[in-house]
Amino acid sequence: MDTLRLSSENPILFRPPRRRGVFLHLGVALLLIAGAAGGLYFALGEQAGAYFLLYLVIGIVCLLPLPLVLYRGFALFRAGYLLERDGLRLRWGLRSEDIPLHLVEWIRPAAELGINLPLPSFSVTGAILGKHDVPDLGPVEFLAAERENMLVVATASKAFAISPDDVKGFLKAYQQVAELGSLNPIPQGSIVPAVLARQVWSDRVMRFLMLGGLVLTVILFLVVSIAIPNRSAVSIGFSALGLPNEPVNPVRLLLLPILGALTYAADAIGAFYFYRKPNYTAIAYMLLGAGLLVLVLLILAVVIIL
Asked: Rounded CA gap, 65 and 23, in Å?
């Protein structure tokens, strides 16, 4: 039973089964990192040509899905279903849903509904996410980790498919709060990543920081791309004695814009996570600002190296 008592009113936090999903996402992330590192390593050891481009493409292709895999793994690790006397709160990464208890029509195991409950596309263990229109049930949003022991929470407008690790404990707790009745229903609320993205874009500071990061990343790629053909070798970094390292193939400079883009992407994900909390907007600004600073420093580093 994976539950946790919270506050004096004793709401209960039910976690989804996480072990298999976390290990799966961690394993995929490590494979992508290994593929990206291998591709970049071999690319940096090649002269400009077909093999250089091949290895570089392999490295970039492995890097592209990495933020999504890491986000899904982190979202699963932090996911939970908070059941209290006045409502049910669903949390999964950037997605959150607050449902007043009186709007919950019923909660039943999916296996007992007598209907086929198709999963959203690209569902994997630890990340059964998305929406699906189900005959006789209507729109269903999935916020689940595993199909086994899945529960369906029905409301007047839509249903939610969840997967608490302790199904019996969750149903028992829901029966208890339903019998007690709600004294002060929680406000109904919903945060959807797409809506959050529009809110972020409408914020002038966030929009400036995001566009600034994109522009600086492009500038960094252009500066490196222009510099490589004009140099036969470059010295990157310094030895322990403070002397320049031995000159190396200039194509290794491509590592800088790649690292800069990855750093900024990680900062952007963190900024989105904090921006959805009213009291943490300043942290979102600082994260994106730190990403901009890294890009500026990398551009200066390339200029100094050349």
From this structure: 17
Residues 303 and 206 in one domain: yes
* Vertex 279 angle, CA 275 and 281, to 5°: 35
CB within 8 Å of 18: residues ≥ 6 apart: 76, 77, 79, 126, 145, 165
SS (H, E, C) 151-190: EEEEECCCEEEECCCCHHHHHHHHHHHHHHCCCCCCCCEE
pTM across the whole model: 0.73
Virtual torsion, Cα 142, 145, 148, 151, nearest 10 deg = -40
Which tokens in the block code for residue 132?
């699906």
Residues 163 and 147: their CA atoms lie apart, in Å, by 7
For residue 302, the enclosing domain spans 193-306
- Measured CA to CA, the distance from residue 167 to residue 150 in angstroms comes to 8
Per residue in 213-231, pLDDT (tens digit) is 989 988 988 888 777 777 7
